[in-house]
Amino acid sequence: MEQTEGAGSAAEAYSAYKPLLFALAYRMLGSVMDAEDVVQEAFLSMSETKLEDIRHPKAFLCKIVTNRCIDRLRSASKQREVYVGPWLPEPLVEDESRSSEDSFLQRESLSTAYLLLLQQLSWVERAVFLLREVLQYEYDEIAEIVGKSSTNCRQIFRRAKLAISGIPEQERELARVNAQTKETNIAMQFVQALASGNVAQVLSIVQEGAVLYSDGGGKVKAAVRPIQGAERIAAFFFGIMEKQLPEDNSFAFAAVNGGTGVIGYTQGKPYFVLTFDVGEQQRISSLYLVVNPDKLTHLASL
């Protein structure tokens, strides 16, 4: 029997491969909770399989996770068609337990912009791209996982790579790195300007052609179309603060999707997550506001 890649039991495999599998599933699905469920399902399948029948545990688990993700994406496709307003991925907030072990989460972009770009790929393209680009699999291994030929996988990867390359290199590089001091300062300045009612400062921080995407999912009030322009974005936020901001509220800065984010709390529970893209001249170019309560429930335990 061949060596099982250092994972001689389901418990050892869980410890060795859970971060990798979560990194794959989260990028496939854009959902923290669904990714965690898929990973648990993969290890459950492994525990129900004789270990001597699993020659390569990592490939075995990656195949299960990939297929389960594709199944979930297929079942969710109809829901996406009738989704109210812009769809944004669930915020991935870095905590101490996750940051120490999930090195795979830092090897590729986690920014909202990059995840949205991945969502534009077909399911197979997304799987092949992530297995090759993020997990560094060989094409023969990818072929076995996705059920296609090695040559076909190579072609699929090239198409996906070309599509992903549509994001400017400056933004891609920014997305690969955790939030830097300048980005954190910009986020703080933006929140302080809103809190003080300083419209001029908001306009100085946000690019003139910036775009705001807000995801309420039809569950709470949010803009059903992207809001473009610094003045309109400022008016949107000041309108919320004047009419909709809960009385018992607080804010916290956190590492969200590889950058700096703002989490809003009311009565101790999260009610929004705001993340940013910072473009030219260190000004905000895109804002992503998640207020859909279904996408925030996983943050309650942080």
UniProtKB/TrEMBL annotation:
<dbReference type="Pfam" id="PF04542">
    <property type="entry name" value="Sigma70_r2"/>
</dbReference>
<dbReference type="InterPro" id="IPR014284">
    <property type="entry name" value="RNA_pol_sigma-70_dom"/>
</dbReference>
<feature type="domain" description="RNA polymerase sigma factor 70 region 4 type 2">
    <location>
        <begin position="113"/>
        <end position="163"/>
    </location>
</feature>
<feature type="domain" description="RNA polymerase sigma-70 region 2">
    <location>
        <begin position="14"/>
        <end position="78"/>
    </location>
</feature>
<dbReference type="InterPro" id="IPR013324">
    <property type="entry name" value="RNA_pol_sigma_r3/r4-like"/>
</dbReference>
<dbReference type="InterPro" id="IPR007627">
    <property type="entry name" value="RNA_pol_sigma70_r2"/>
</dbReference>
<dbReference type="GO" id="GO:0006352">
    <property type="term" value="P:DNA-templated transcription initiation"/>
</dbReference>
<protein>
    <submittedName>
        <fullName>RNA polymerase sigma-70 factor (ECF subfamily)</fullName>
    </submittedName>
</protein>
<dbReference type="InterPro" id="IPR014303">
    <property type="entry name" value="RNA_pol_sigma-70_ECF"/>
</dbReference>
<dbReference type="GO" id="GO:0003677">
    <property type="term" value="F:DNA binding"/>
</dbReference>
<dbReference type="GO" id="GO:0016987">
    <property type="term" value="F:sigma factor activity"/>
</dbReference>
<dbReference type="InterPro" id="IPR013325">
    <property type="entry name" value="RNA_pol_sigma_r2"/>
</dbReference>
<dbReference type="InterPro" id="IPR036388">
    <property type="entry name" value="WH-like_DNA-bd_sf"/>
</dbReference>
<dbReference type="InterPro" id="IPR032710">
    <property type="entry name" value="NTF2-like_dom_sf"/>
</dbReference>
<dbReference type="InterPro" id="IPR052704">
    <property type="entry name" value="ECF_Sigma-70_Domain"/>
</dbReference>
<dbReference type="InterPro" id="IPR013249">
    <property type="entry name" value="RNA_pol_sigma70_r4_t2"/>
</dbReference>
<comment type="subunit">
    <text>Interacts transiently with the RNA polymerase catalytic core formed by RpoA, RpoB, RpoC and RpoZ (2 alpha, 1 beta, 1 beta' and 1 omega subunit) to form the RNA polymerase holoenzyme that can initiate transcription.</text>
</comment>
<dbReference type="Pfam" id="PF08281">
    <property type="entry name" value="Sigma70_r4_2"/>
</dbReference>
